[in-house]
């Protein structure tokens, strides 16, 4: 690319310069704005950018930033953003060489950081990963795992592999070109549409049908939440997330719920089968955004933003997002990248 490797700098979560750069890039930077502000941050987390945190620094045109917390494994431990994701950055739809260098510089730097130990609460997940290895012993470029809880956990046996959340499809292409993307886990063939919502345009929260009430999800509800999805989310993490639930007044049973993910996205939206078709999912989604999103991702014009990532083909969730006024704006993926293959990528890219 003709670009030297960029220096990577640690930023505090409150870094005014990084938050300014992300704010200028809304709504496209929304994942990283939310993740850097979320209180669920361990001592081993790193907030990184290709510019220093000094107030005297001018934000460059081309830059990249990341949130990395390896101790979150097997949950998502990496979020990436680069300035080229903003459509006005360049007339070309191809990432500019300098932004590409910024992304690979970040990944090269991450490969030098120590891997923290797995949190004890995730030891059972490690055992399930070992069981998955017995069932599917082979790895390689032509191996694909079926989508099960075990396939989400398998990377725990590979300490150098990280899960990148809701990452722009062009960053995935850059990582794939550099030989970093692992394909055993459903990744590049499992595309998601990112929906953006202006909070001010969301519909008003509707009244619930008779016999139901609003509430927050409680610890005793979380076993049911976990049972309704193959995506592993620990009780430890779920308890740190903002939530909205709908409960039967007579039984106190949760019949619909959603959470605001660590990156602010609509997470684990679910309605029990016997209550579907009544508009409850839409009401739950609108309420969680209206209750918790207004102050967290606000652009320079004062617009508060919310977002959701929906797998292509998930007609029900796409319908909910469209009913809230959202449109699919960006293609994103959840993928695994192997930091052990990083080396000094940006020098040779």
Descriptive overview:
Helix content is 27%, strand content 22%. It has helices at 16-24, 30-37, 97-110, 123-135, 149-153, 169-177, 222-227, 235-238, 280-292, 315-323, 345-348, and strands at residues 9-10, 46-49, 64-68, 78-82, 161-168, 181-182, 192-198, 212-215, 242-248, 254-260, 266-271, 305-311, 327-338. The mean pLDDT is 90. A hairpin with a 5-residue loop joins strand 9 (242-248) and strand 10 (254-260). The radius of gyration is 20 Å and the shape is globular. It starts with 8 loop residues before the first strand and ends with a helix. It has 349 residues and is of the alpha+beta class. It has two domains: 9-119 and 153-193 and 332-348; 198-330, Gcn5-related N-acetyltransferase (GNAT) (Aminopeptidase). Strands 5, 6, 7, 12 and 13 form a five-stranded antiparallel sheet that branches. The chain has a four-stranded antiparallel sheet with strand order 1-2-3-4, sandwiched between helices. The protein contains eleven helices and 13 strands. This is GCN5-related N-acetyltransferase Rv2170-like domain-containing protein. It comes from Massarina eburnea CBS 473.64. One of its GO terms (molecular function) is acyltransferase activity, transferring groups other than amino-acyl groups. InterPro entries: Acyl-CoA_N-acyltransferase, Acyl_CoA_acyltransferase, GCN5-like_dom. Residues 243-335 form the GCN5-related N-acetyltransferase Rv2170-like domain.
């Amino acid at each position: 690319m003709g670009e030297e490797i960029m220096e990577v700098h640690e930023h505090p979560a409150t870094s005014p310069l990084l938050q300014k750069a992300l704010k200028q890039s809304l709504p496209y930077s929304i994942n990283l704005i939310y993740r850097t502000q979320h209180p669920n941050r361990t001592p081993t987390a790193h907030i990184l950018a290709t510019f220093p945190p000094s107030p005297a620094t001018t934000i460059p045109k081309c830059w990249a930033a990341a949130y990395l917390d390896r101790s979150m494994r097997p949950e998502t431990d990496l979020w990436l953003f680069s300035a080229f994701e903003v459509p006005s950055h360049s007339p070309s739809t191809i990432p500019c060489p300098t932004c590409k260098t910024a992304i690979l510089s970040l990944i090269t730097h991450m490969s030098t950081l120590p891997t923290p130990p797995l949190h004890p609460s995730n030891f059972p997940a490690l055992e399930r990963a070992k069981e998955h290895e017995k069932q599917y012993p082979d790895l390689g470029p032509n191996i694909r795992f079926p989508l099960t809880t075990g396939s989400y956990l398998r990377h725990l046996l590979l300490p150098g592999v990280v899960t990148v959340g809701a990452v722009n499809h062009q960053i995935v292409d850059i990582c794939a070109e550099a030989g970093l993307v692992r394909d055993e886990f459903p990744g590049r063939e499992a595309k998601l549409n990112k929906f953006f919502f202006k909070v001010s345009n969301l519909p008003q929260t509707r009244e619930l049908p008779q016999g139901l009430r609003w509430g927050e999800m409680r610890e005793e509800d979380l076993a049911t939440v976990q049972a309704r999805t193959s995506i592993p989310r620990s009780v430890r993490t779920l308890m740190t997330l903002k939530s909205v639930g709908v409960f039967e007044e007579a039984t106190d049973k949760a019949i619909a719920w959603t959470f605001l993910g660590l990156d602010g996205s609509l997470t684990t939206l679910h309605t029990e089968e016997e209550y579907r078709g009544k508009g409850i999912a839409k009401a739950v989604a609108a309420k969680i955004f209206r209750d918790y999103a207004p102050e967290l991702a606000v652009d320079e014009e004062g617009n508060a933003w919310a977002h959701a990532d929906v797998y292509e083909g998930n007609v029900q969730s796409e319908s909910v997002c469209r009913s809230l006024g959202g449109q699919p704006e960006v293609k994103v993926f959840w993928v695994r990248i192997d930091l052990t293959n990083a080396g000094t990528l940006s020098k040779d890219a």
